[in-house]
Amino acid sequence: MKRIKTLITRQGSGSREDRSPTEETATTPESMKSIEHTLKEEREFPNDPMKDAEVLESIEKVYFGDETFDSNLHELNKLPELDQLDLNKVGQDRDLLRRQLNSVSKKVSDLVLENHSAYSKELHRVTNLQASLQTANIICSNGRRQLEMAKQGFTVASLSILANHKKRLQLLSLLKSLHTIKTLQRTDIRLREMMEEENYPEAIQLCLECQKAASTFRHYRCISELSSKLQDTMEMIEEQLDQALAKTCSNFDIEHYEKVQTAYQLLGKTQTAMDQLHMHYTSAIHNTAFTIVVGYVELVSGSQDTNFQKMHYRDLCTHITTDTYIPCLVDLCKALWEVMKSYHKIIEWHETNDEPISPTLQESDVASDLGNVEAQLNKKYIKQKLTHGLTRIWQDVQQKVKLYLLGTDLSSFKYDDFIYVLDLVNRLITVGEEFCGSKSEGLHDSIRQQSLNYFKNYHRARIEELQMFLENEGWELCPVRANFTALNLHEFRYLRQAGISQPGKGAPASPSPKRDHCTRSGYFTKYGAQGSPFDREMDDEEGEDVIATNGYEDEERDSQGNESDDSDVPDELKQEYIDEHTEDQQHARSSLKRRKSDRTHFRGPVAILSNTTLNILRLFGKYMQMVAVLKPIAFDVVICMSQLFDYYLYAVYTFFSTDLSTDKHHPSYLRIGQSDALGLSLSNKIRTTLQRINDNLINNEPPAGMMPNPMENKEKVGFPHISPMVNLTGMDKLHGLAERVVGTESLVFLAEQFQSLQSHLEGVIPASKKPFLQQFYSQTVSVASELRRPVYRGVASRCIDFEKILQLMFTVKWDIKDIMSQHSAYVDVLLQEFQIFSNRLTDVNRRVPVPTEVYTILWEHIIRLANRTFVEGYASARKCSNEGRALMQLDFQQFLLKLETLTEIRPIPDKEYVETYVKAYYLSEADMESWIKEHREYSSKQLTSLINCAINNKKARQRLLASVEDMERARVR
Hints:
Elements: H1 2-13, H2 21-25, H3 29-44, H4 49-58, H5 71-78, H6 87-114, H7 116-153, H8 156-196, H9 200-216, H10 221-247, H11 254-267, H12 270-301, H13 306-310, H14 313-317, H15 322-352, H16 365-369, H17 372-406, H18 415-436, H19 441-471, H20 493-498, H21 516-521, H22 523-526, H23 552-563, H24 583-601, H25 611-629, H26 634-657, H27 684-696, E1 698-699, E2 717-718, H28 737-756, H29 758-764, H30 770-781, H31 783-786, H32 788-798, H33 802-810, H34 825-847, H35 852-874, H36 882-902, H37 911-919, H38 925-934, H39 940-950, H40 954-972
Parallel strand pairs: 1-2
């Protein structure tokens, strides 16, 4: 206990510091025993803070008395007499004392550990103090020794020298102060020079040093006035610094901005500078827009009217004329671009210079006192402020341009000017998206309605213009190159630059215009140094190399040259003399040459189009340019493109498929829904398409007695009428076959070009509208090639006088008794008509190249009509013998034999139609009934004639005739 008390006393009094390390670390047998005893007690009495506190409370107060207290004697005095001594009681007291000793030892150990750091610090301070005292002792000893020497050796003169030296030092100090005061007086001039040089950091550094020096010499009267002047100078510097910060809004200079930021950092106002910067940007956007617009308004008015300066920006935009609209918009976009580019460069500068800026001169007190926490807060504040400022600045820019766009009616603009305006707005929208990721709803909304109104007016004028072109079109061949496509036109140049494929060569490489390539790399990257996205790019004025130099005549000349080449003619046909009786050889030779001529004239695809078709292709190009810049109304533009195609298709059908007069035997197409007697009516697909166009687009004349509804017909176009200059009659020209070829093949060519644009159009319209486009292509564009058949069927039905052939067949007697070896005369007449048709077709081909498809369709039609004429003629026979049936077969076989020399169409169309009918004459009564039910392609007249001639049994004939009548009634229903 005594040892513990001693430890406590020493800890409380601090005497432990005076103990030497040797005494503290000395190890004695007694201390070793104490440590072992302590460890034993720790094992016996585990650490329990609550119990330790209770044990400490149970210690008698006398143990904490003065140092003279003897705990051993105190405990011995507490023991009773020897005869009353209880060993168990003594053991309990001993255990209690041990527990108390253990708790006190733990408490002392905790206090020692708790105050160890303070002890170490105090020990270090005492050591330093001890070293300082020793140094002071040495200095004092030296001073006293030297004073003793001076006392013994110096005289009065020496003391005078010391006094003068002291005075000299005082005067030097005074002179230094005077020089400092003089320098402070001249500082104002230097500060002004630095401000003119825009050296703001050094000016602030100098001003701060002057203020520090002024506070040092404030006991001088002149310095008090200087301090006030320096304060005014500092305020003036801050004002000029704010003006310098405002200059960065329109023309960012990295050195200038770095000086400004350094200056604000020296002032400790980086956050204030960022707030001021955004205020300046807001003012810069407004002032820039107002200055540019008012400048153009005053330029138009011819005088600088002060009323314009007082107007609101919204009202001022309404005074812009159409002549100055585009130049003003370009300047406005360029100026606002410079503002956004400066802000973008500021953000880049702060991202690059993330660390605090070190002053160029000696570090100031303000910069040195800025702690790490404050620096991090400043960085975070600046970053957040700059990020939020992106959206705010873009909204201001967008609002200014939006008000400008809404201030003028764009409906009267020319096409190229309107496209250029939209292109500028689209570029600005792209800049906004790159600037802050904004979708620019304001600009989209402002331009959408005006664009829609403009385009509706523009499209209305174009489709009326198309009607005028169609009604004045002569359907002459436009001389273009054989490999001409829409991409050769100037209006499609941006698609060539984007790499769109030609028809049939795959999907486009890129559906975007050329300028989109710039935006991929970023406008702020491309135009970061100079220029702007709103500089008018000079398009490559590529010549439209579409006109054929020699035209179709070169191809015809080549074909004629090839025609003279008879290298593949058999040798026996090359002989100069051929026996006049060898008619078959002569015929074979002429047939071979004719087929070779046909292969020459009707062989490869040729670009056939009219002037109107070329104009529609140009309109397609212009409309697709609108699609590129009018993304909000891209679908409306695509619908209008489809209307152009619809109207052209309807006009071609109306001009060349509805001009045929009704014929008794081969009535032709008159209007939608009317079919001919040959079963060759319009397909459901063509009928549906034409009906849709007629209902939705064509403004038909109202019935007599009804007034037209102007609101209903506002969106419709007048019914097209072919030009009276176009002659679609005349056998020598095959009823205007050349004009029909130009019109119909122009439509097919237009459909092919439109088909090549499908992938591009699908890429610019919304996904929800793609089904419309796909349906239009599948149901309308694909119909163009199918329109060939009804158009050329009209030529085929009138180029040969099938009525005359029928009349000749009516005179033939089919009830002959002898088998004929010579065919009937009507076959030669028909073949002669075919030969004349072939010659006329060749003549037409010299004027207009007749494609292979047209050649095939014409011959198919004329052969089908001839075959139906054969059946119709055979059905006119009232009586027919077996020999007559053989004559029928002979006539038809002679026709087929000669036909093979006239055309290369293989197989002969509907040959089975005639052969099956002739063979039916040989059927029995039982087979005839089933045959009639299976062959419904024949008319009731033809079936009736067949029954009357082939069936001799009266009852069977009547039964079959009744069956035919039932079939006819079912067909009519």
